[in-house]
Amino acid sequence: MESRLYPSPESGAPLLVLLTHEEEGERVLAAVRGRTREPFSLLCVGVEHWGDDLTPWPSESIHRGSPPYAGGAEAFLEKLVEEVVPAAERELGSESAYRALVGYSLAGLFALWTAYRTEAFSRIGSVSGSLWYEGFADYALRETPAGNPGKIYFSLGERESRTRHPLVRTVEENTILIERFWAERGCRTVFERNRGGHFYESEERTARAAAWLLENG
Question: What is the secondary structure of the chain as a DSSP string?
Answer without folding.
Answer: --EEEE--SSTT--EEEEEESSS-HHHHHHHHHTT-----EEEEEE-S-HHHHS-SS-B--SSTTSPPB---HHHHHHHIIIIIHHHHHHHHTS--S-EEEEEETHHHHHHHHHTTT-SS-SEEEEET--TTSTTHHHHHHHSPPSS--SEEEEEEETTTT-SS-TTGGGHHHHHHHHHHHHHHTT-EEEEEEESSSTTTTHHHHHHHHHHHHHS--
